[in-house]
Design a protein that fits this description.
5 strands
């Protein structure tokens, strides 16, 4: 979750966090804003809301199976650079959580370590990271395989996918891959950068059919099959 939030920040892309209540999603977002010396506020979206630039939307939602929650329309979800699924903590992590809460320990103070202007400069550096045309073609192959799986020898996926990724998927996969390279202190993108971020960039841009749901096929299964089939550059 922390890596994905940083990638979204550096990519100038909004991030959707999904997980059951009580996983500290909002606390993490607030802590990030404090570390950047930025303002944090919870808002209810309206079509004409106005925020000062630069701004970053980090939205949280419960899994769709939870009572009282409503899925966002596909057109809205597509605007998030990533949808990050937040899982439960490990056994040892939850033991620490228990101790901290039982003992009444307060959360550690978060001090600003970077300015908004430095973030803006870092975003430009991310854009300037080199991406070879072969890596661009690799990204296109992945995205086009979500639309036309049969052309990539994935006939079994055709009845499982109702719609593939939009062009935003290609754009955001390229930008997020550059951010991954930046965080790994590289001035160029490698295929592994693309593969490492692919699921979170594409999981909310691909629709599954009723047949897929009936067979208990999840979106990560589809993306994994595409990554296994598409040739590496």
């Amino acid at each position: 979750m922390l890596d994905r939030l940083l990638i979204g920040l550096l990519s100038n892309g909004h991030v959707l966090l999904e997980g059951v209540p009580g996983l500290a999603k909002t606390l993490t977002i607030k802590s990030l804003s404090l570390a950047i010396h930025a303002n944090f506020s919870r808002i209810q979206f309206t079509p004409d809301y106005k925020l000062d630039e630069p701004f970053l939307v980090l939205a949280t939602q419960n899994p769709l199976e939870q009572e009282g929650t409503y899925p966002l329309p596909e057109a809205q979800v597509d605007r998030f650079i990533m949808k990050v699924v937040v899982g439960y903590p490990s056994r040892s992590e939850e033991q620490i959580i228990i101790r901290q809460n039982v003992q009444g320990l307060t959360a550690p103070k978060v001090n600003p370590v970077v300015s908004v202007q430095e973030i803006v400069s870092a975003r430009q550096m991310v854009r300037d990271i080199y991406m070879d045309e072969k890596v661009e073609q690799y990204i296109l192959d992945i995205v086009f395989a979500t639309r036309n799986p049969s052309e990539y020898g994935l006939d079994n996926l055709k009845p499982l996918i109702s719609y593939g990724s939009s062009p935003r998927g290609s754009i955001n996969l390229a930008i997020a891959s550059k951010a991954v390279a930046f965080l790994n202190k590289r001035g160029y993108v490698i295929p592994e950068d693309v593969r490492s971020i692919c699921v979170d960039v594409l999981r909310h841009r691909i629709g599954l059919t009723y047949e897929a749901e009936a067979e208990n096929i999840v979106i990560t299964d589809v993306i994994d099959q595409i990554l296994q089939k598409v040739d590496l550059p």
